[in-house]
Amino acid sequence: MHGALPVYIQIAELISRQISAGHLLDGQRLPTEKIMAREYGVAVGTLRKSLARLVELGLLVRRQGSGNYIQRGEHAASIYSFFRLELPTGGGLPSANLLLVATLAKPDGLPDFGLGGAAHVDFAHRFRRVRFLDGDAVALEEIWLDGSVTPKIDPAEVSQSLYEFYKSQLGIWITRAEDWVSIDALPDWAADQFHLPAGTMVGYVERFGWSQTNNKVEFSRTWFDHNAARYVARLK
């Protein structure tokens, strides 16, 4: 898929989501590195990079001579921390297929977002994507990024994680979000990319995203197949 993340990051993200879903419990000892490498179909060196990333995220403790143990970090922030769709059984590795990126005037009916005052702009960048969990299409996504962030977007630079792209390429990151969950009819702009026909009533999420400077720079819409995925928000 376009802009795929490195394999070691994919494995780390998958394990992170298994922890969030409760499939891996706090204090649980993981299998040996050799066994895990075989399960994921990678070299031991690649698996060790994944584990090292989990240690950096505060989700794993490596005890010399004993093994690797899950550590549920309350403030751990993985790449897909803000992605709230999971498989019905929990977890699942997210990925995306970018359909198009367009820069255009904000259409009538789009909720208000962006900067105010002299910094206000009347255009935005629209991303349309198909979202997958463990390789199965579960959602359509339309994201609007305010034009004040950057005047143009190079589709070739957009990675599997849009928030990672924001941070690495645009110098912003989403620090908080507000979601509104309801139902809506599936749009017709991806009729040949999704397994449900346009007009089907599905789960629907509208989201506002705020940057590190506390500006509401993003608005998104997600239509998801509620039989293939569920929306999950865990409160602590």
What does this structure look like?
The chain is of the alpha+beta class. The chain folds into two domains: 7-70, Arc Repressor Mutant, subunit A (Orthogonal Bundle); 85-231, Chorismate lyase, CATH 3.40.1410. Helix content is 19%, strand content 33%. It contains four helices and ten strands. The protein has helices at residues 7-20, 33-40, 44-56, 162-170; strands at residues 60-63, 67-70, 85-86, 94-105, 123-133, 136-146, 174-185, 201-211, 216-224, 230-231. It has a six-stranded antiparallel β-sheet. A hairpin with a 4-residue loop joins strand 8 and strand 9. The longest helix is centred in the N-terminal third of the chain and has 14 residues, at 7-20. The radius of gyration is 19 Å and the shape is globular. The mean pLDDT is 91.
Short précis:
The protein is built from 4 helices and 10 strands. It has 236 residues and is an alpha+beta fold. 30% of the residues are buried.
Topology readout:
Elements lengths: L6 H14 L12 H8 L3 H13 L3 E4 L3 E4 L14 E2 L7 E12 L17 E11 L2 E11 L15 H9 L3 E12 L15 E11 L4 E9 L5 E2 L5
Antiparallel strand pairs: 1-2, 3-10, 4-5, 5-6, 6-9, 7-8, 8-9
Helix pairs in contact: 1-3, 2-3
Keywords:
236 residues, alpha+beta, Arc Repressor Mutant, subunit A, Chorismate lyase, 2 domains, 6-stranded antiparallel sheet, two-stranded antiparallel ribbon, 4 helices, 19% helix
